[in-house]
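Chain and conformation:
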Amino acid sequence: MPKIRTNKTAAKRFRITGTGKIMRRNARKGHLMMKKSGSRRRRLSLESEVAHGERIRVFQMLGTR
C-alpha cells in the first residue's frame, strides 16, 4: 500500500485546531485596503472555519483521518 501524500498547497492554506476544526484565511484582503474600513480589515484578518461540506475534501488533501 503506498503512502498517502499531503497536498502541499492545501497544507499551506489550512490548519487543524486541537478540537479538529479546519481553519482558513478570509478572502478579499490581498489589496485595495485603503477603501475598506478598519473594522472590516480587522474582521478579514481573523481566521474562519471551513464550511461543513468542504471538510471531508480538505481532510483528504491534508492526508488526515
